[in-house]
Structure formats: structure tokens, C-alpha cells
Amino acid sequence: MNSVCGRIRNLDPRTKLVLLILANLMLFFHVAVSTQAVMVVLFLLPLVAAGRWRMALKFAVVYAVLTALGFLDPEFLGMPWLHVVSALAVGANMMLPCFITGAYAFSTTSPSAFICAMRRIHMPEAVVIPCVVVIRFFPTVAQDYRQIRAAMALRGIASGGWGMLRHPAQSLEYILIPLLMNATNVAQDLSVAALTKGLGRAGAHTSRTRIHMTPIDWLTIVVCTVPLALDIAGVI
Description:
Elements: H1 2-9, H2 13-29, H3 33-49, H4 53-70, H5 74-77, H6 82-108, H7 111-120, H8 125-154, H9 163-166, H10 168-196, H11 215-232
Helix pairs in contact: 2-6, 2-11, 3-4, 3-6, 3-11, 4-6, 7-8, 8-10
């Protein structure tokens, strides 16, 4: 019973890759708004099942706001400048499914599980190593950001949630520049660590991480693929 609950809470990494591909196909084929809404709901369900309900709620609110902005009629409201806002909202809304599936994959997949999944699908090592570095890169940069924000709050510089907006010049100087300078070192260190662990070694590799596709994974893939396939076929 605990194993089944665990599988529901965390899908196989290969299923997450399929969800990422479906999200990018939505952007490529420019699906209808109704299909997009259904797909967003389906993409949010794994986040909720994995216990990331706050993240799912934030994405849902952002999607609802962007959708509402996209339906604005600037001519009826007498504000032509809203055309720019509406166009930006539509563009951001089209990319949001990619952000949702990417956030789910990054926040619920360990590097070892991802490596095991990539090797199960016979992905070359030249692709595996950069992907592993990317997976470790963003959490490391996020940790550096939190440390910088804590140091700024301790010194009373742009403290609070709106501090960055009230003081954009200070935010650029104290946050963005240190992050950019540190990003190169982080990427280099992660690459060296990956190679030191033997990820680039030729030959067969073993792994203590066990992954396998379950009926829940196959059901998730089918349920998420059907609305997109129907939209591409012109049924919806």
C-alpha cells in the first residue's frame, strides 16, 4: 500500500520527460484555449499529488490571471495600450505549461533517478552529463539567492517582498551581479563533480536507484496525450 501511494506521489522520471515533451508540443502547435486549460489542470495534478500544492496553487493563479488578461478587449475598454499587455499575457500563457512540467520534474526528481532514466532510454553520455549539471545547477543558484537575500535583509538593504521593486538599482547591484558571477563557478564545479563520480566513464554503468514504469505512469501519459492529440487532429 505504501509503495502504491509513493508511486502516485512521484511518477517515473521517463513519465516526467514525456510531460515535458507534451508541454513543448502544446507551444509548437498553438493549441486552443480550452485544450490548454485542460492540459494545465492535468499538469498541475502531479504537483498536488507530490505535495507541492503551494507551487500548484501559484501556477493556477498565474494561469488564471494571464488567461483573463489575454481575453481583454482594449477597443471596448477604450485603452489601446492594453494590446501590449494582452499580447504579453498570451505569450506567457503559452509557455506556462512548460514551466509547470519543468518545475515538477526538477523539484521531484533526484539526480540519480534522472541518470538512471536517461540510461534506460539509451541516451548518450554527452547528453546525460549536461542534463545532470542543469538539474543540480538551479537548486544551487536558488540557495545562493536565498543567502544573498538574507545578507541584504540583515544589512537593511531592499528588505521585504517589495524591496527589489522599490530599489531596482540596488537589486541589480547586490543580487543579479553576484549571481551571474557565481553561476559560472557553480556550473564548472558541478561538471567537475559529475566527471569525478565517473559519469563520463565509458562502458556499462550500474545504479542503486530502481525505477520502473507502473500502470499509473502509463495512465498519466495516455490521459495527458489524448487532449493534445484531439486538438492537433482538429476534433477539439
